[in-house]
Amino acid sequence: MIVMRFLLKPCIAVILALAPAGVGPARAVEAIYQVTQTGIAVVEITAQFEARPDGYWMRSVSRAVGIGRLFAPHEIRSEVEGAWRAEGVAPQRFQAEGNWRGDSRRTVLLYREGMPQPLEMEPPEGATNEPVPLPARRGAIDMLSAFALMSRTVTQTGRCDLGGPIYDGRRRLDWQSRTLGTARVTHAGQEIDSLQCGLESRLIAGVRHGDDRARATQPRAAMAWLAKVDSRLPPIPVRVEFPSTIFGTMRMELQRIR
Predict the structure, then answer these.
(1) By the 8 A CB rule, do 69 and 1 touch?
(2) Rounded to the nearest 5°, which phi and psi values hold at 190?
(3) Which pLDDT tens digit goes with each residue over 33-66?
(4) pLDDT on residue 18
(5) Phi and psi of 168, rounded to 5°?
(6) What's the 3-state SS for 202-217?
(7) Picking from 4-13, 95-104, 136-145, which range would have the lowest pLDDT averaged per residue?
(8) Of 246, 258, 244, which Cα lies nearest the Cα of 12?
(9) Which of 3, 105, 116, 222 is least surrounded, with the fewest CB atoms within 10 Å of its CB?
């Protein structure tokens, strides 16, 4: 079961991911998600959001639970802060750290004139993945900022037609989202209206050493349902579904807001 390798794709950074110790903004809202495979819980994601007139802040923690601890034990924390721009988002600092199957990881990115610049990398760049060429990084944003951009776009337009490049310090991906229509979904025991979006991501550079390149660079599809479930938040995913790398369908569902 390669659960988290797919979850960390930007279509699920609609999915989110991840946060160092510290105190978050006082107005941050927390959302709890559960990821299941064939009905069995494997991952829990806790995400915090704050949208301000001039920018955004996000933090999340993803950890394996239940049977997920046997196949893909991990706890990964991420955080981003950025500014709104007329053309989208401008992340200023992104970091992700934690452990994956017992190995410690840490990435810190700073952004200068549209170029993400690694400030800290553990393991070092190139140790686990093929290096990403500098030209392929230009204009790329992190996964959490892609989520913030999607929520803002849905708020402003009522649609989720957008896309762009993603760089997380080790991999460069392309992602896109398209509007499929509206649908009624169940959340907290009630039927609510949601915007249904088709998602797709594709690895462009940074293939992990030892992985089959053809398989690693295949497009990854998912389906997301976004809704406004709290007056303090923009529309956020209440459900995301995507094919498992083994069998069946994996589902991420919003459990509660606090």
Answers:
(1) no
(2) -125, 150
(3) 999 988 899 999 999 999 888 999 999 999 999 9
(4) 29
(5) -110, 15
(6) EEEECCECCCCHHHHC
(7) 4-13
(8) 244
(9) 105
Tokens of 225: 């349902």
CA dihedral over 216, 218, 223, 226, signed as positive or negative? positive
**How far, in Å, CA of 127 to CA of 23, rounded?**
32
The beta strand positions in the chain, using DSSP E, are 29-37, 40-51, 55-64, 74-85, 88-100, 103-112, 115-122, 162-167, 172-187, 190-205, 220-227, 236-243, 249-257
Separation CA 19–CA 37 (nearest Å): 25
Whether residue 78 has pLDDT greater than 50? yes
Look up tokens 């990398």; give the residue. Answer: 121
Location of structure tokens 């920018």 = 55
Task: State both tokens at 76.
Answer: 């990964």
What's the CA gap between 159 and 151, in Å, rounded? 10
1 burial (CB, 10 Å; 0-12 / 13-18 / 19+) is middle
| Peptide bond connecting 123 to the previous residue in cis, omega within 30 degrees of 0 | yes
- Strands 115-122, 162-167: pairing kind: unpaired
